């Protein structure tokens, strides 16, 4: 997939979905609320972002994206120690009710732990837990991913507080109407906590890597990495921030409530392309 001033080239599988949807008609699927997290870390004078490639059998399989997934019912029912902006403050940034905002933030923290092994929590509001890559933590992560335990229960058992202040809101994207599975996804950025490391732990990914945003964009344009518009646009935005401090400053003024939905143009002649609106 490539990106230029005319929009984004579309993978053939998505073009097929769009043509089928147009031919068959019918109502679009209802989007499921989801959250995804751009984990960032310093890399010399620059910074890198963590990306994963979804396994081919999954929705959007073979595509590079950021750790994330759908909001689980347990995320909205969680009663847990909470540090950082309260759900009411998050509601203002995300454009939803406080309970829905809490669910999105919990989902972001839960999913990044499930899919990368990084835990955005600490013993108190000023600290973050250290290395969570040991066997006992891995068993806990697997239980969480399999829904044998809830995220709130995990934190309570470990006497940990969710550090919502480590998540910075960035944007909101809704899957195009032609897709049979759609998501209303809130994007966050977060700095990799000191002492923690990402691990290739998710059964939903077949490849993971740390990469400079500019390099990821270059490889996508060269056809080496397949990425959808939300990933491409977000990588370009964080790259434009210059450094990690710039990313944090940019987040403070970003609109994370108004959704963006890519539209796929299907001309009679010429290449189908995604455009944003």
Summarize the structure.
The chain is 34% helix and 25% strand. It is of the alpha+beta class. It has a single domain, classed as Nucleoside Triphosphate Pyrophosphohydrolase, CATH 3.90.79.
Task: List the keywords.
277 residues; 7-stranded mixed beta sheet; 9 helices; Nucleoside Triphosphate Pyrophosphohydrolase
Query: Which CATH architecture is right?
Result: Alpha-Beta Complex
CATH class: Alpha Beta
Distance between the termini: 19 Å
Tell me the major beta sheet: 7 strands, mixed
Total domain modules: 1
- What is the helix tally? 9
Q: What do you see in this structure?
A:
It is a single chain. By secondary structure, the protein is an alpha+beta fold. It has a single domain, classed as Nucleoside Triphosphate Pyrophosphohydrolase (Alpha-Beta Complex). It contains nine helices and 14 strands. The chain has helices spanning 12-24, 73-77, 87-94, 98-116, 135-145, 151-157, 213-221, 229-240, 244-252; strands at 3-4, 7-9, 32-43, 46-54, 64-65, 68-70, 82-83, 121-122, 161-163, 168-174, 183-191, 205-211, 262-265, 273-276. Strands 3, 4, 5, 6, 10, 11 and 12 form a seven-stranded mixed beta sheet that branches. Strand 10 (168-174) and strand 11 form a beta hairpin. Helix 4 (98-116) packs across helix 5 and helix 7 (213-221) crosses helix 8 (229-240).
Q: Layout of helices and strands, plus pairs?
A:
Blueprint: E1 3-4, E2 7-9, H1 12-24, E3 32-43, E4 46-54, E5 64-65, E6 68-70, H2 73-77, E7 82-83, H3 87-94, H4 98-116, E8 121-122, H5 135-145, H6 151-157, E9 161-163, E10 168-174, E11 183-191, E12 205-211, H7 213-221, H8 229-240, H9 244-252, E13 262-265, E14 273-276
């Amino acid at each position: 997939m490539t990106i230029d001033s005319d929009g984004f080239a579309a993978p053939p599988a998505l073009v097929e979905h769009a043509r089928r949807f147009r031919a068959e008609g019918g109502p679009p699927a209802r989007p499921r609320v989801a959250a995804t997290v751009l984990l960032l870390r310093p890399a010399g004078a620059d910074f890198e972002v963590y990306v994963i490639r979804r396994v081919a059998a999954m929705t959007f399989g073979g595509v590079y994206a950021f750790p994330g997934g759908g909001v689980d019912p347990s995320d909205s029912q969680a009663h847990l120690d909470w540090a950082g902006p309260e759900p009411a403050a998050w509601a203002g940034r995300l454009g939803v009710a406080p309970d829905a905002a809490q669910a999105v933030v919990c989902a972001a923290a839960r999913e990044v732990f499930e899919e990368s092994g990084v835990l955005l929590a600490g013993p108190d509001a000023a600290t973050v837990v250290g290395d969570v890559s040991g066997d006992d933590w891995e068993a806990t992560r697997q239980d969480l991913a399999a829904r044998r335990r809830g995220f709130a229960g995990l934190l309570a058992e470990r006497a940990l507080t969710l550090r919502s202040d480590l998540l910075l809101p960035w944007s909101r994207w809704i899957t195009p109407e032609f897709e049979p599975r759609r998501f209303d996804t809130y994007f966050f950025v977060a700095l990799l906590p000191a002492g923690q490391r990402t691990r290739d732990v998710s059964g939903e990914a077949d490849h993971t890597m740390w990469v400079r945003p500019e390099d990821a964009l270059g490889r996508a344009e060269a056809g080496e990495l397949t990425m959808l518009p939300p990933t491409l646009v977000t990588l370009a935005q964080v790259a434009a921030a210059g450094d990690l401090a710039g990313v944090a400053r940019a987040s403070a003024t970003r609109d994370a409530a108004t959704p963006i939905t890519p539209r796929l143009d299907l001309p009679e002649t010429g290449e189908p392309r995604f455009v944003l609106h």
